[in-house]
Amino acid sequence: MKALFDKDVIGLNIILIGPPGAGKGTQASLIANKYDIPFVSSGDLFRDHRKLGTELGLLAEKYMNSGQLVPDQVTINMVMDWLAKNNGNNSGFLLDGFPRTVDQATALEKALGDKNSVGPSIYINVDQDQLIIRLTGRRVCMDCQLSFHIHSNPPIHEGKCDKCSATLTQREDDNFDAVRARLDAYKHNTEPLVDYYFKKNVLIEINGNKTIDQVSLDIIESLDRLNVN
Ligand code: AP5
Predict the structure, then answer these.
(1) Residue 7: its pLDDT value, please?
(2) Catalytic residue among 24, 47, 50, 139
């Protein structure tokens, strides 16, 4: 197990899995900064395309607003493009929200090849009633994508991003109907990945119902136990 996660031997290829609102985005930058690896959220990549008005952004928008997954091939191409630019020397990465289907998972394995592997796969598990509270109370910075919560993680100055002072808004897919559709899509398409990575012996399950700081500590403690440093 140790060799598998030894950052000096091969890259530390972390995947964050969890239902919408589990706290993947909140934890992603903290983990990636601690282990000094590049990270990306597939949702943020789509939102960047949408902002730029690219063909991909326009295609993704209709799926995202209704809470459905964007088709696999389009998503795989976009993330592989990011990986080619950010993991050229196999030094490791963190992916937030990808893979989200078994086909995406196998495409990632194929891209990494025989000498490199996916893992650890951190599964943030949160009760469904909490997810709805988190998503409907979330506010995001449209400039730097940092996310806040009106109760559990409020910004220092109301309505303004702590990092870049831009205005905070509510995501278009954080309304009740889209949230329900996203939870359904998660159940049908993404939850099977928990078992998939468990069987590959790379799954770390984290109780995401705790405070943000406690979840971070639990993740770091689990990674440290694997001698990731
Ligand atoms: P994406 O942007 O990835 O959305 P998601 O998976 O639904 O996840 P979220 O960003 O909503 O939640 P999160 O887990 O990051 O939670 P956060 O940290 O913000 O994807 C959007 C769409 O893009 C998808 O629906 C799909 O259409 C498309 N897409 C993306 N990837 C795809 C793929 N691979 N394949 C196909 N389609 C894809 O936290 C939520 C809130 O809770 C925040 O307010 C936060 O402050 C608060 N919070 C966080 N942690 C805690 C805590 N421990 N206690 C209390 N509050 C907390």
Answers:
(1) 45
(2) 24
Axis-axis angle for helices 55-65, 72-86 (nearest 10): 120
Q: DSSP assignment, residue 53?
A: T
What is the DSSP-derived secondary structure letter of residue 4? G
For domain 2-38+87-127+190-228, say whether CATH 3.40.50.300 is its number. yes
User: Is pTM beyond 0.85 here?
Assistant: yes
* Contact partners, residue 196, CB within 8 Å, separation at least 6: 102, 105
State if residue 79 touches ligand 1 by the CB under 6 angstroms criterion: no
pLDDT score of 173 = 94
Mean pLDDT (10-residue bins), the chain, 229 residues: 44 93 95 94 95 96 95 97 88 95 97 86 96 95 90 94 96 92 97 97 97 96 79
**190 C-beta closer than 6 A to ligand 1:** no
Q: What is the pLDDT of residue 114?
A: 78
What's the token pair of residue 179? Answer: 């949230």
Question: What are the helix (H) ranges across the chain?
Answer: 24-35, 42-52, 55-65, 72-86, 102-112, 128-136, 176-185, 192-199, 212-225
Residue 100 · residue 197 · CB < 8 Å: no
